[in-house]
């Protein structure tokens, strides 16, 4: 078992927080702690163009709209166009995330938008390195109900 988190404690953040340790990884990821402000014990990074991907799964407590956010620490070697998928009750929505810029939300999160989720059904966020140029960052996903 892991000791207490060395970064931001996911239990102290609102909503559902899935740390990279709880996510399903494939391909080659490297653990890092050098960029301060990460969530949990560390963050992960992978080379753009590699077959690395990571799937953060979760279940909401109550059906409805939820804002989905990803945590990332900016760095000059990070990709400006990382493929991200959100799997919700609306289906799969693909988008691109800029991991080069400073995240606009508190604790280093970037909003992917609000999506419909149903209680008892798995939702997921998948981050992929395959089409990215530069490094891809994976730290945590936060899911917050929209009032």
Short structural summary:
The chain is mostly beta strands and 147 residues long. The protein has strands at 16-19, 24-26, 30-32, 43-47, 53-59, 64-71, 82-88, 91-97, 109-117, 122-128, 135-138, 140-145.
Q: What features would you describe in this structure?
A:
The protein has 147 residues and is mainly beta. It has no helices and twelve strands. The strands form three sheets. A five-stranded antiparallel sheet has the order 2-5-10-7-8, with no helix packed on it. A hairpin with a 2-residue loop joins strand 7 (82-88) and strand 8 (91-97).
DSSP strand count: 12
The fraction of residues assigned to DSSP E strands is over 45%
Q: Which residue ranges are poorly predicted, with pLDDT under 50 across at least 5 consecutive positions?
A: none
Helix content: under 10%
Major beta sheet summary: 5 strands, antiparallel
- What is the CA-CA span between the terminal residues? 36 Å
Count of separate DSSP helical elements: 0
Average the pLDDT over all residues and give the rounded result.
Answer: 95
Q: Using the alpha-carbon principal axes, give the shape.
A: globular
Main sheet strand line-up:
2-5-10-7-8
The Cα radius of gyration reads: 14 Å
What is the H-and-E element order? EEEEEEEEEEEE
């Amino acid at each position: 078992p892991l000791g207490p988190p060395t970064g931001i404690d996911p239990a102290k953040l609102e909503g559902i927080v899935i740390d990279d340790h709880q996510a399903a990884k494939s391909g080659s990821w490297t653990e890092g702690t050098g960029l301060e402000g990460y969530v949990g014990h560390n963050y992960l990074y992978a080379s753009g163009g590699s077959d690395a991907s990571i799937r953060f799964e979760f279940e909401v407590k109550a059906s409805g709209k939820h804002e989905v956010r990803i945590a990332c620490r900016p760095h000059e070697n990070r990709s400006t166009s990382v493929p991200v998928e959100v799997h919700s009750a609306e289906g799969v929505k693909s988008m691109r995330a800029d991991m080069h810029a400073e995240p606009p939300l508190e604790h280093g999160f970037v909003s992917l938008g609000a999506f419909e989720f149903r209680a008892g059904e798995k939702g997921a966020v998948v981050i992929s390195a395959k089409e990215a140029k530069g490094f891809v960052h994976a730290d945590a996903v936060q899911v917050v109900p929209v009032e």
